[in-house]
Amino acid sequence: MPADTPLSDRLEDDDYPAYTMGRAAEMLGTTPGFLRAIGEARLITPLRSEGGHRRYSRYQLRIAARARELVDRGTPIEAACRIVILEDQLEEAQRIHAEYRAAHEASGGSARASS
Fold it and tell me: Which residues are paired to 20 by β-bridges?
C-alpha cells in the first residue's frame, strides 16, 4: 500500500504491517522468541521496517494465534506450523471452489459434469 494512503485505510488493511514484534508478542500473550520460531518454520514472514525491525499484520497475528493454540495444547511448534499452513491452504481451496461453483451455476451450467 503506498505511503500516501491515509493512515485509517492502512490500519483497516489486514495485510498492513502495523505491529512491532514486542507489541505482537504482547497481544498474543507470548514471547518474541515464539514469533521468531514460527518465522523460522516459515509460517509467517514479517515485513521489515527501514531499520530492519520485524513488523506484523493483523492477518499474521491471527495465524500466529492459531499456532499458539496448538502449541499450548502440546503440539510441537514445527507440527503446529504445518497444521496451520495446511488449514490455510484448505480454506483457500474451498474459497476458490465456491467461487468456481457460483460462476459455473450463474452461467447456466451444472455444478457437476454430466455423464
Answer: 55
Sheet holding 47-48, edge to edge: 19-20, 54-56, 47-48
Q: How far apart are CA 54 and CA 93, in angstroms?
A: 29
pTM of the model: 0.75
DSSP 8-state code for residue 16: S
The Cα 30–Cα 39 span in angstroms is 14
Residue 52 burial class via C-beta count within 10 angstroms: exposed 0-12, middle 13-18, buried 19 and up: exposed
Looking up cell 502440546 gives 74
Distance CA 87, CA 4 (A): 35
**CA distance linking residue 43 with residue 67, whole number of Å:** 9
pLDDT digits (tens, 9 = 90+) for 34-89: 999 999 999 999 999 889 999 999 999 999 999 999 999 999 999 999 999 999 99
CA 7 from chain centre, in angstroms, equals 21
